[in-house]
Design brief:
One of its GO terms (biological process) is lipid metabolic process. By secondary structure, this protein is mainly α. It has 16 helices and five strands. A three-stranded mixed β-sheet has the order 1-4-5. The chain has a two-stranded parallel sheet with strand order 2-3.
Length: 335
């Protein structure tokens, strides 16, 4: 992509990078209020039968996913005009989604700054090894990577690891303000959820809250995975890496039915989001439809996305993902 075309593309999407208070307010109302209402109903239904509470909680996961998208936009400072208002909203929705605001914000911004850059992997990303790295890895490192990339581990155990371990601790280089924010989040969760367990009982509490946390977490990891893991996704060495190409070629357009785009806060328009993270989620679809060069991004349907589960290693020489089986056939040795 030529330099002038990149400038033109950035110029074309810039008008959409603005907050619409009416849309933001409506989205907060039609997301947070139903979430809280359904959780209350789930708690009441438990007294009728525990299975009804679980079913209701599963439905609530729809609104928890949307709450996370609001949290995500607040982290980018795109949801409300003033940063202090985004900070407040981010902390509130971060509590509801079990994500510490400042910790996740910093890690996610690092992800955006280096997505697709082979030399800046490791923070806020799905773990990706190149063919060369896997070839040189020890048996233990290969086994660890295989376990990590197993769908059962990534999508079933992953939500629990993310919520109860990863989100609870800061990295060694985290600043004091971030550490305080994380521990305040932890303490508030402990007090509120501990109080609910005391009042409702363990069984009642987990029937209401476990399904929503698990399902929303699993779908959240899946969305993040599929938006950067497709056969010809963009990865490049730092010297050749390009932000615009990383956005358009390294982030997918997940073509979902309208109702699923609504549920997921339009995050399927991920190429638009990576090109300009200041575009609020409710403007991503309009941006994609209006700016025709964005139509060249890799489109993945719901059915096609399932095939991405087989992609495990990135082949720099052919600029595409390959499977473990393909790696084994190439090397004619156990992988």
């Amino acid at each position: 992509m030529e330099k002038d075309k990149k400038k033109m593309l950035n110029k074309m999407v810039k008008p959409f990078a603005k907050t619409n208070y009416t849309k933001s307010t409506i989205q907060i109302i039609n997301t947070l209020l139903p979430l809280i209402a359904i959780l209350v109903v789930s708690g009441l239904l438990y007294n009728v039968h525990w299975s009804l509470a679980i079913i209701s909680s599963i439905f609530a996961s729809i609104f928890l996913i949307r709450t996370f998208i609001i949290f995500h936009d607040a982290c980018h400072g795109s949801y409300l005009k003033k940063q202090k208002h985004n900070d407040l909203l981010g902390n509130v929705t971060g509590f509801l989604t079990l994500f510490p605001y400042r910790k996740w914000r910093r890690e996610h911004l690092i992800h955006h700054a280096g997505s697709g850059n082979l030399e800046k992997r490791g923070i806020g990303d799905i773990w990706v090894m190149t063919v060369e790295e896997y070839t040189e890895a020890s048996k233990f490192q290969r086994l660890t990577y295989r376990i990590y990339r197993n769908p059962l581990v990534m999508f079933v155990l992953g939500p629990f690891f993310l919520v109860f371990i990863s989100n609870r601790f800061n990295s060694k280089d985290a600043k004091k303000k971030e550490r305080i924010n994380t521990w305040m989040n932890n303490i508030l969760l402990l007090v509120v959820y501990g109080g609910l367990i005391y009042l409702l009982g363990v069984g009642h509490f987990f029937a209401v809250f476990a399904p929503i946390i698990f399902i929303a977490g699993m779908l959240g990891i899946w969305l993040f995975y599929i938006q950067h893991t497709f056969e010809d996704s963009y990865f490049e060495e730092a010297s050749e890496w390009d932000y615009v190409k990383a956005a358009i070629d390294g982030s997918s357009y997940y073509k979902l039915p309208k109702v699923l785009h609504w549920v997921t806060g339009n995050i399927g328009y991920h190429h638009v989001h990576h090109l300009n993270p200041r575009i609020p989620n409710y403007s991503l679809e309009e941006t994609h439809e209006t700016v025709t060069p964005l139509h060249h991004a890799t489109s993945i349907t719901l059915r096609e996305s399932l095939t991405s589960l087989k992609f495990k290693l990135y082949d720099k020489s052919h600029k595409r993902f390959i499977t473990f089986k393909e790696f084994s056939l190439r090397n004619k040795q156990p992988s």
